[in-house]
Amino acid sequence: MRPVSAAFLRTVRGSHTMAARARVCETFQTGTDPDGTEIPILAGDVISDANSDVRSTLDLVTAGHGMWPTSHGNLLLAPYGNEILVERGVKFGNGVTEWVSLGYYRIQTPDQATTPDGPIRISARDRMAGLIDGRLLAPAQFTASQTYGDVVEQLVLQVYPNATIEWDDTTDVDTLGRALVAEEDRFGFLADLVTSRGKIWYWDHRGVLVIRDPPDVDVPVFDVDAGKGGVLVAASRQLTRERVYNAVVAFGEATDTAAPARATAINGDSNSPTYFSGPFGPVPRFFASPLLTSNAEAAKAAETILRRQLGLPYVVDFSAVPNPALEPWDPVRIRYSSKVGIETHIIDRITIPLVAAAPMTATTREQTVVLVGSA
To answer: Out of 253, 303, 306, 320, which could bridge 248 as a Cys pair, Cβ 3.0 to 4.6 Å?
Structure first.
């Protein structure tokens, strides 16, 4: 969850006044208070999806009078590299507004349905889009003695020279252990590298590239509940086998003198409805990476990937009073009514509106604690 005060979390649970703002930044910046040109927000939202390569996208409608980009005029909203920092906040009774940054978004497409001065709809994507677009012009070679941090820094800073990269532990100083070549897919190589070490990565609300272990799902950060003092507006639910795995096989590449590293992690909890040896049946996922040079590394990757998938095949879509601090991977407690027990769910996808009239919507999967074993 994005950092906010206790007063903020209390306030969003009741009647309050929201605020939203958007600033167009003409230079690459980091932090939650950049220099930029504020533009009005007529409508829009931010959608964040834990399962998407580009984790967050922005859809924003702003005033169009004199703002359409032209070759000899105002290029503020042109899709030539400018970014928009968007925020949603709460206005307290004392006149102070606490803002929550929703991140930086590179302008992708401005669209004006009514010329010359009608509203402009802007589609924008977070900074991961730049790494996807920035394919390598020539293969990049890395030696066995180079560190993970060296590789990430080189490939990211070629696209964003002023980027800040933040690891949550010392994995960045570990050496690769074997020579590697990144062909042309910069993003794919980096994603493979991060996943091979059991990490997730994304550009956060500060514009920082964060590489970290998946968050602790055992400690819910917010209650989404119905009734007096609750925030739940509506909910629907579904049981599905889609994207539900109960085993992960991770393996590396063979060398001239050794077999490839290989390990398998399974859902070994006989009380789980997705138990590997139960009636759900075996449903493995496979992950191959040349970065896996030992069975121990393969085991860590397999276990981490499996834990990211685990949970009951039980999906809930809900709408609620918006809390812009929430983001993908956050565990939340859901209670549909006073007569129904509490369920712990992990947010997979969330939509934060930028106007007062719209609710927040989210898609979740129920989280259960299971025994992860090896096979």
So the answer is: 306
| Side-chain-side CA neighbours of residue 91 (13 Å) | 7
Q: Which two tokens stand for residue 346?
A: 């992990």
CATH of domain 131-212: 3.55.50.10
Predicted confidence (pLDDT) per residue in 70-113, tens digit: 877 789 999 999 999 999 999 998 999 999 999 999 999 999 99
Residue 105 tokens, joined: 């978004």
pLDDT digits (tens, 9 = 90+) for 191-225: 999 988 889 999 999 999 999 988 877 789 999 99
220-269 confidence digits (pLDDT tens): 999 999 888 889 999 998 888 887 889 999 998 765 556 788 999 999 88
Would you identify the CATH topology of the domain 6-126? Thrombin, subunit H (2.40.10)
Contact call for residues 188 and 140 (beta carbons, < 8 A): no
How many residues comprise the chain? 375
Residue with tokens 């994207």: 243
C-alpha distances (whole Å) from 64 to each of 41, 286, 290 are 11, 49, 50
